[in-house]
């Protein structure tokens, strides 16, 4: 949780106090890395919190299951994003760009 | 009626699964909590904006996070079904008995139902369309604020009563 708070603070510094505007800064690779680190750390914190009531044997077995579940969730999000990215989105583009793309 | 409910509440296949794999119950707990966080993070933020917090944020922007709340609810519903259907393997009590005797589970289910009615009322009264049209700094109508407060209270109640369920088993 302490590490997650530090990562969150650095994320906020990067997005809201950096040289770029927040809309631009949030799309940078650094912002994505910080977000991924923050998400992972919170998953670890939640898992650790839930597992405090169990024996070492159950904890070791559950850690493997949680890791698999986490990887499946990441894969599902990546697949969903890839499918959404394949959707035609000419309607949301500036009209001149949409017309030029349709021409091709 | 009662015997049919008792029959459908208990799932021996889930009990066997939970008995066989020691990681299954704690994994479901982790997923249940992750679902709660997704649900309350998305819906709670939207409710707070309805109440007037963070007025600089347009509601249409916060609405884009609501599908994550639905994902969270689905995660909670599936894992909650595993908890109820397979509870006999954990505490040795039939789920029907738990449902009939545990006041916290009854209150949790009641509050979930009321939160569902609140969402239906939000869209049935046209409040959803009204707040969609609001921009930054715009104030939500009083009825929308009441519904936001009700939603926040009901979901907090669901979390609170959910935590108390094991204490009455």
3D architecture notes:
- The complex is a heterodimer of chains A (104) and B (169).
- Chain A has 104 residues and is mostly helical.
- Chain A folds into two domains: 1-53; 56-89.
- Chain A has five helices and no strands.
- Chain A has helices spanning 2-16, 22-25, 29-51, 56-85, 95-103.
- In chain B, α3 (24-50) runs antiparallel to α5, α3 (24-50) runs antiparallel to α10 (142-164) and α8 (103-124) packs antiparallel against α10 (142-164).
- Chain B has one domain.
- The model of chain B has no long low-confidence stretch (mean pLDDT 93).
- The longest helix of chain B has 27 residues, at 24-50.
- Chain B is mainly alpha-helical.
- Chain A binds chain B through residues 43, 46-47, 49-51, 54, 57-59, 61-62, 64-66, 69, and chain B through 21-24, 26-27, 29-31, 33-34, 37.
Structural class of chain B: mainly alpha
Shape of chain A: flat
Q: Uncertain runs of chain B with pLDDT below 50, 5 residues or more?
A: none
- Give the helix tally of chain A: 5
Beta-strand residue percentage of chain A: under 5%
Number of domains of chain B: 1
Compute the number of strand runs of chain B: 0
Largest interface: A-B, 16 and 12 residues
Strand percentage of chain B = under 5%
Structure class of chain A = mainly alpha
What is the CA-atom radius of gyration of chain B, in angstroms?
18 Å
- The overall pLDDT of chain A, averaged over residues, is 83
Helix content of chain A: over 70%
User: How many H/I helices of chain B?
Assistant: 10
Number of domains of chain A: 2
């Amino acid at each position: 949780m302490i590490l997650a708070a530090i990562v969150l603070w650095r994320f906020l510094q990067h997005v809201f106090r950096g040289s770029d505007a927040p809309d631009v800064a949030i799309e940078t690779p650094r912002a994505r890395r910080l977000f991924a680190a923050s998400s992972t750390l919170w998953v670890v914190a939640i898992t650790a919190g839930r597992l405090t009531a169990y024996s070492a044997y159950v904890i070791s077995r559950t850690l493997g299951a949680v890791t698999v579940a986490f990887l499946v969730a990441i894969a599902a999000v990546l697949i969903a994003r890839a499918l959404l990215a394949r959707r035609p989105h000419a309607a949301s583009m500036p009209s001149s760009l949409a017309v030029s793309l349709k021409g091709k | 009626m009662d015997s049919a409910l008792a029959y459908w509440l208990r799932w021996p296949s889930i009990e066997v699964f939970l008995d066989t794999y020691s990681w299954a119950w704690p994994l479901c707990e982790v997923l249940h909590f992750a679902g709660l966080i997704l649900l309350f993070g998305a819906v709670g933020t939207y409710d707070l904006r309805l109440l007037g917090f963070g007025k600089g944020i347009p509601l249409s922007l916060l609405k884009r996070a609501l599908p994550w709340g639905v994902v969270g609810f689905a995660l909670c519903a599936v894992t909650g079904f595993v908890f109820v259907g397979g509870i006999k393997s954990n505490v040795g009590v039939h789920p029907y008995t738990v449902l009939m005797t545990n006041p916290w589970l009854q209150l949790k289910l009641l509050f979930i139902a009321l939160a569902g009615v609140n969402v239906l009322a939000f869209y049935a009264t046209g409040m959803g369309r009204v707040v969609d049209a609001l921009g930054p700094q715009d104030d939500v109508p009083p009825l929308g604020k009441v519904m936001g407060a009700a939603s926040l209270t009901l979901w907090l109640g669901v979390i609170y009563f959910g935590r108390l369920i094991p204490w009455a088993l």
